[in-house]
Amino acid sequence: MGLRFGTFQESYAGDMAIFRTKLDWGILFVFLLLLFTCPLFISDRMLTIMTMIGIAVISVHGLNILTGYCGQISIGHVGFMAVGGYVSAILTAKLGWSFWAALPCAALAAGIAGLIFGLPSLKIKGFYLIMATIAAHFIIIWLILQLYHVTGGPDGLAVPKPRIGSMVLKSKVSYFYLVMVFTVLATVLAKNIIRTRAGRAFVAIRDNDLAAEVMGISLWSYKLQAFFIGCVFAGVAGALLIHYIAFASVDQFPFMDSVWYLGMLIVGGSGSIGRG
Asked: Are 224 and 217 in contact (CB under 8 A)?
């Protein structure tokens, strides 16, 4: 998005800044102030809705990097959320790990699953890639149901709430703050990833993969990087969802949610993260 009339930059650092004017910083401050004080004046029902929105935003950021910026259409994104959610659930419920130790493992596991199911993108695209990602969702759910000794199968698995020291984040307000901190961090991280060399390569592949390859961009490397990064975001969102409900079940990861996330991406602006 272009700058406002009369606004110009006098340095490269100013041109590369995410927030370029005092007005931008003011809007950000007011938004964060309202966001983190809203539990004081909204109902528990609205708090639950906003918490779920925050989890969805984290997941859609990953889908935006994969589909919006790199052009690799995925309709199996919720399947990778399930990978992250179940890895975190198993590590905390069965092995006694803390949520903070299990979360990066969940993100990494979802990223690795994305790498595996992203391999077809090296040879196929368009409708055929869509079908491959749909298959990924159902394969992941099938594996979760089959590994019932570990995952609980169709019966599910009870998981503990996260804790910070001796404080258990069991209230809706405390978990809302946890999710919103991760949402803000995910937004800043996604914005900065797109500003890197890899982010520019993603855009080049999306616009014209043949031209990008001629320019020396490795399609093999950057497509897999996009799948890995996008699924890492999904893994974090899946872990946050599982621990919010305190129960892991495949019913929490329906296929239609992947379609909804794609719709959110289209309506919210595919290939766009905020202003700038």
From this structure: no
